[in-house]
Amino acid sequence: MNSLGFTLSQDCFVDKGVDYTGLHKQTKSGRPCIKWPSAPDDFTYCRNRDEEMNQPYCFFAEGEKEACAVPKCAAGAEALHGWVADPGTVTHEEPCTPKPTALSDKSSQYFLR
């Protein structure tokens, strides 16, 4: 358990991974992700903002994309904007801490809500 009163679990996604903001950047077949065409910087992390696939994916070559090697979260786990808390472990609220832009393609995303 951390100082905020909850336990952080593995980097995983729920549902289709639309809210996934983890740090995976490799496809299921082991290819490294390349920069997203729409990203202003060198953003290479797996995402599924547009629900184009059933899980987070990335580009591995220009115009070529593949599902990423991100595991699906265990049943009952809740995604907390890129991190997962074990069921029933969040015990109190704290002010949100903005993510550094290098970790997210949306700088307004937060670690916790």
UniProtKB/TrEMBL annotation:
InterPro entries named in the record: Kringle, Kringle-like, Kringle_CS, Kringle_sf
Compositional bias segments (type: Polar residues): 104-113
Sequence segments annotated as region (Disordered): 91-113
Domain Kringle: 11-73
Organism expressing this protein natively: Oxyrrhis marina (Dinoflagellate)
Superkingdom, natural source: Eukaryota
Keywords: Disulfide bond, Kringle
Official protein name in the record: Kringle domain-containing protein
